């Protein structure tokens, strides 16, 4: 064997050994909890198109913005939005400090376990409950309260921690998009600080990539130490027509992919899919009453009515949860 | 020479050849426009501390958030904030469509070239001028208007395009921090959409990392096409105590480094430097009347008074522009 041969062989061997990933690894199914079929294929085709350099629908990495609703899209939202279940638990925990709540609605009914009467006053009652439990502390204190709750509270049906009520196929989708150069954002009707308190650990989404509803904040000094106090006043509702507004305020450019599950996400999908040539708009349709819940046009939580019509009119992708997802929750 | 020796030599050679960067390259001065001295050293020491794994002040990359004021910190702000010069140019350009402005203040004085009388009404006049020139169009239309202006307008003193009035040492600092795993944000009292229109090209800062003052937006359809209309109403003023609020709303975690030049940045620096063990708070002191402008405690633009006292009390870093910067603007 001549020296030149040894040299060439070593170069070949080292080149292979030092490659970042074998092609077999990159071709592995990145979405194993999605059944094969047109829905999964639509996602894969979209990603292939926008990442193909030189293609007509190529999108530069900086513009690969994907936005995800949270409740009903990344985690479950039945029998009530989890943040509302948190507020109920907080009212109970705080009631000893608020003896006046025994005679004041909506607290009085809630403390008797009568949720229906508590909410009889509609939006006003919800605002009362949210502000009473989401203000009067610093942002850092609030984060601790939510994290303590998430560490101990369990879902009324599954009895699992709420952070285990996330959809395994969506976790795979988030990772798949990020592996393809996308920046993933949450755009939630829920509270921005509530969702941030678990989004990084649960979804791999950092706080600066969470857009949501918010209360007003006030910078002030407490004993010489600066803090941001959460005030009992609504600042912004990131739902419906508010979602494109929240996207513009926080992201400043139009997404190319949007994922939602209710009419509250319709404007976000309209905004996304009115953009450049390459875009993906997707609704998750809750069709699985056995593994999850089945609801759409008539539901009080996560109503999907106009959205289903718009999806049909515009050719958007609709996930049939029962048939498109091999697995709903993680194990 | 034995085969084993050849093998070892080849591995050594290839390892060296395939290293991403030689140590000589990484040790090159990353801040060539900064004169050697305590200010430059304070920056380098801070970066070394927070990036030293295992050190007591090590900060994980995800937490390496650096925030920069814009006017007077990244680009000049004299004789007037550049966005205000933009508004004046827009009033002139739009005056043919607004014959009523001839008899209406603050427009009438401004159109006669009498800026002092135009601003006699103080804040009210400024709000009038800004809303008249920053609303009534979509966010995308506004971006185009600003970019057209930046492409043609020139600074009244230097006669250079405004985007050449950026500070070369700060461009180097932005790049240096990013090379060390920092995520760099602008936190400006200026308009969020105004600054976004050039921040990515000029500073390498994408729109989702720009925090600023904003007007209200409204999602609506124009001939079936969705757009976000800029309304004539102030939504948020990202200045003074508003800066930590803007940081929390958009970033959701406390920065570890903050750079400003005026009392409007004081709360941002207080918030940053009340955080964990590792932090850097820095004011730029405009001391160079020859190469730039010299102003501080008594200036109407970029007043730095309480900030200078706070810097002395807290041991924050103060850049003496005249002595610390080898070069002010790029060539």
Automatic annotation (TrEMBL), chains A, B:
InterPro entries: HAD-like_SerB (IPR050582), HAD-like_sf (IPR036412), HAD_sf (IPR023214)
Pathways per UniProt: Amino-acid biosynthesis; L-serine biosynthesis; L-serine from 3-phospho-D-glycerate: step 3/3
Keyword entries, A-Z: Amino-acid biosynthesis, Hydrolase, Magnesium, Metal-binding, Serine biosynthesis, Signal
Pfam families with a match to the protein in the record: HAD
Gene3D superfamilies according to UniProt: HAD superfamily/HAD-like
Molecular-function annotations in GO: hydrolase activity
CDD domains: HAD_like (cd01427)
Signal peptide: 1-24
Cofactor(s), names only, from the UniProt record: Mg(2+)
Catalyses which reaction(s): O-phospho-D-serine + H2O = D-serine + phosphate; O-phospho-L-serine + H2O = L-serine + phosphate
Enzyme Commission designation: 3.1.3.3
This protein's name: phosphoserine phosphatase
Organism expressing this protein natively: Mesorhizobium captivum
């Amino acid at each position: 064997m001549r020296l030149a041969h040894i040299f060439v062989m070593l170069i070949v061997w080292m080149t292979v050994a030092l490659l970042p990933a074998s092609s077999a690894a990159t071709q592995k199914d990145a979405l194993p909890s999605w059944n094969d079929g047109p829905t999964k294929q639509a996602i894969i085709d979209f990603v292939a198109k926008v990442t193909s350099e030189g293609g007509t629908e190529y999108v530069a990495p900086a513009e690969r913005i994907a936005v995800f609703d949270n409740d009903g899209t990344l985690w479950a939202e039945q029998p009530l939005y989890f943040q509302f279940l948190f507020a109920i638990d907080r009212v109970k925990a705080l009631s000893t400090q608020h003896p006046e709540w025994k005679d004041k609605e909506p607290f009085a009914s809630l403390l008797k376990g009568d949720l229906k009467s508590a909410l009889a006053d509609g939006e006003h009652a919800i605002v009362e409950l949210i502000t009473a439990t989401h203000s009067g502390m610093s942002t850092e204190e609030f984060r601790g309260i939510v994290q303590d709750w998430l560490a101990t509270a369990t879902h009324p049906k599954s009895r699992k921690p709420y952070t285990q009520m996330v959809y395994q196929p969506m976790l795979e989708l988030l990772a798949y998009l990020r592996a393809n150069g996308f920046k993933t954002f949450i755009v939630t009707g829920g509270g921005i600080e509530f969702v941030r308190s678990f989004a990084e650990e649960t979804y791999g989404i950092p706080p600066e990539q969470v857009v949501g509803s918010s209360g007003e904040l006030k910078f002030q000094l407490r004993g010489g130490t600066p803090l941001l106090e959460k005030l009992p006043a609504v600042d912004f509702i990131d739902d419906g027509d508010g979602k494109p507004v929240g996207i513009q305020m926080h992201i400043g450019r139009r997404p190319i992919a949007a994922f939602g599950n209710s009419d509250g996400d319709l404007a976000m999908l309209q905004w996304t899919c009115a953009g450049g040539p390459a875009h993906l708009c997707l609704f998750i349709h809750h069709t699985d009453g056995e593994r999850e819940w089945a609801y759409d046009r008539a539901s009080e939580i996560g109503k999907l009515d106009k959205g289903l019509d718009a999806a049909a009119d515009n050719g958007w992708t609709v996930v049939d949860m029962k048939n498109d997802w091999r697995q709903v929750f993680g194990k």
